[in-house]
Specification:
single chain, mainly alpha, two-stranded parallel ribbon, two-stranded antiparallel sheet, 3% strand
Length: 318
């Protein structure tokens, strides 16, 4: 179907760029018409009040767009490494090889990758070193289509997590294709302009309502709704939380910058500082592989899972 395009442009996320641009423009114009555009982030106001629903901040959105553009380049490099690794696994370790053109192979690949995405995403919120790669996506205090493009530059955790698919006979190129389709799906759920959908759809699929919860920094919204395309994994593994009020978006400890390099790397620096100041091997390892916010004087179950605020009575405080 897309044979007239260069090979690099047949990648689903690249093909979807015109759609991404159109939706961002439409949403941004709507925010401008409704006078929901801002020059300062909510945390800069010092009031703790969230921005108006569907708001845009030009500098915040520009940072998201730039991070998305860099992510296209970095993900291309990671995909080359993934293709090499998956090809070796597929050729030498897979007990069978599924046909790339069969519909059931695509179904197995898509559902299987989404299941693995759930666990990779959950690990990213519970292991600090992996959280360092993911936290940039949560750093915006707005929830709009540009937030969807605020992607990480380090895809190593995902590459490792998808390894069972080529081992089970899914062709390597197909693994990367369904991953891209999964990302394309997740674009449209980053908006406040879509409310609750038909109940059966809300039960099975990840929707804007479910994903707003995931991006919330509120105590009872933290570390919920990890699903990519399907929300059934969260229901199965008890990490689901319905949207009962409008979230406050962003990290529990906002990062006061629009610098995309700092947004992507500041948590690595924080880990390095904590490790240098730690006493003993256990503490050093816990600062790297423990949950975000781990401290020697705190128990893991009462650690805020974003930036270190303590839990109180079983609930995290912002």
């Amino acid at each position: 179907m897309f044979d007239f395009l260069p090979q690099a442009m047949r990648e689903p996320t690249v093909l979807a760029i015109p759609f991404f641009v159109l939706m961002v423009v439409l949403e941004w114009v709507a925010a401008w018409k409704l006078e929901h555009t801002e020059t300062d982030r909510p945390s800069q106001h010092g009031t703790g009040v969230a921005a108006p629903r569907g708001s845009y901040n030009a500098r915040d959105s520009r940072a998201s767009l730039l991070m998305g553009l860099v992510s296209i380049a970095t993900s291309a490099g990671w995909k080359v490494l993934a293709l090499l690794a998956y090809s070796a696994v597929f050729a030498y370790l897979a007990p069978w090889r599924l046909p790339a053109t069969a519909w059931y192979t695509w179904l197995i690949a898509f559902v299987g990758l989404d299941f693995l995405f759930y666990w990779e995403h959950r690990i990213a919120h519970r292991v600090r070193l992996v959280w360092a790669t993911h936290q940039a996506h949560h750093s915006s205090e707005y929830f709009n289509f540009t937030t969807a493009l605020r992607q990480k530059w380090n895809n190593s955790a995902g590459i490792i997590m998808w390894l069972p698919l080529p081992f089970l006979g899914v062709p390597p190129a197909l693994v990367l294709a369904v991953y891209s389709l999964n990302l394309v799906y997740q674009f449209w759920i980053h908006t406040e302009h879509i409310g609750r959908l038909w109940a059966p759809a809300e039960f099975v699929f990840n929707t804007p309502s479910h994903h707003r919860v995931h991006h919330g920094s509120n105590a009872d919204y933290l570390d919920r709704n990890y699903g990519g395309t399907f929300i059934i994994w969260d229901r199965m593994f008890r990490t689901f939380r319905p949207e009962t009020y409008r979230p406050t978006y962003g990290l529990t400890k906002p990062i006061d910058t629009y610098n995309i390099w700092r947004l992507q790397t500041h948590e690595y620096g924080a880990i390095a500082r904590d490790v240098r100041g730690a006493t003993g091997l256990r503490a050093r390892l816990a600062y790297v592989f423990g949950p975000p916010g781990w401290r020697p004087d705190r128990q893991p179950e009462i650690i805020d899972r974003r930036e270190g605020a303590a839990r109180s009575a079983g609930q995290a405080v912002r």
